[in-house]
Amino acid sequence: MPPRRNVPSRQHSTRASVSTQGTDNTGDPMDISAPASERQYPGKRGATTPSRDMPPPKRTKATEEKEPNYGIGGSPNDPTFRKELKVEDLDLHKSYVKDFKLAAEAQKKLKGPRQHFKYDGPKPMTDITLLPDDWNSKEPDLDDEDWDAQIKRCKERIEEGLMTHAYEAKLKGFEEAKAREAALIKSVVGDSNELYSMAVIKRLATLMEIQEDLESKDDKTKTKTDQLPNVKALVKAYRSHELEWHEGLITYWSHGKKLCEPRPFDWDEFEAVNDKYEGHKGFWVEGSDVEAAGTTEANAIISFTPRNPGQLYYYNVACRFPNFAWWHELEFMWDTGSSLMTMYEGDIRSLMGPQIAPQGFIPGIHPYHGPRVLGVIQTAAYGGATISFEMVQIEVCLLDDHRKRMTPWIRRSVGMMMGLPPVPGTGGSPRLDDNWLRHCVYVGSAPEVSQALRFATSPGALHLPNRGTCMANPPPVPNWMPPHPPLWRTHIPPLTAPTPMPPGPTWLGQPPNMPRAAPGVP
């Protein structure tokens, strides 16, 4: 996570932007180069909060030179905070498995006590009102995926005559889950006596399916991605126990060669290693566990509504490739059930802009092949189907009504779907936004006609309509039923008016209205 270099403005307007230079109570700038907890204010020894009777803070070089705004409230043309790293200085041969095992043990989920219920009435007991108020429908003393223990407990509850209809249904589900797991182990291990953790077995099954999918592609697609050597090398490494699955740790691979020992994921490290090995193809991050990004507080709010009552929510996200001055807003669907951000291959040219012109290898992006690649991921879609996506690096942020950033530029991984994106409102598979925004802003809704979702960068700015008493509206009619004629309509104006982009540098065959290059971005 980048350091919190910006200090929120002391104005309390919900539309206020954020200043990157701090001020004391007198309005003069103060030195914000040190963390807030270590910042010293003049006037009193060790003072860490400004006071009206203190003399103005001493101006330093840090305050005289304007610092880029990496936080919120700035322009979308601002750069992303990065650490300058050299691959030669990284401890890629050091394993962090032992350190992470200790941390995982310390954070291990604590189990609750076993639930007991004495019932002497007629059996089976089907009156749910007789259960204790703190009764949990799950068994807090058992692991959720310990199928043998869960099956045994269900049989015990059935013998006790406790809610037998419910526990018979749960028993059937656990028995099916155990059978599926046994079939999965058989498909991976076969008749071998090799012992693998369940996490490795699941990962091997996924890699084998990805390998089968890649091998079915035509030669042009295989050459384009060049991921098959990585998948084969990973399967071999897991089977030989050279590689294990460690939650929170990753390894880098390039064209079938392992580049490091298990280590925590870091975007700056990824970019340095990826650039060294020209990772626009044939690059893989195994076990990626990217840390969720957060933001600092400020006062800004935005809302959006569904296209029609009861339908899905769509909103625009500013996107760009790292090291690129060009950015573009794309429409994504607000999908709280998705854990993967998706885009289309057709979006790559929109985000590359005129910088796709031939000019040699650009660090972070190749003029012909696309952005930095993280590997291939397999996801489960609705209905049980599985889909493989090539994962690439992207930066995203949310803009408010005044075209100011409500979030920093945040680096994310995105799955690339084949083909061109559908025209908004015409059907087709939408781009999915995954859950990045819920880590960055406050989200709220209220039972009102507009059905608006509101995003704010501080809890105080999240103003929801006050209905007095809780008079919830009935839910809208599902989309698969004919809509009822509306009794009345409310006009909802668009949130933002189109903002013309400032002119940019001259390019051969340049599209109109190219945005200016961001400060500090080549």
Automatic annotation (TrEMBL):
Residues 496-505 have a biased composition (Pro residues). Residues 1-83, 496-522 are annotated as: Disordered. Residues 8-26 have a biased composition (Polar residues). It comes from the Eukaryota. This is Uncharacterized protein.
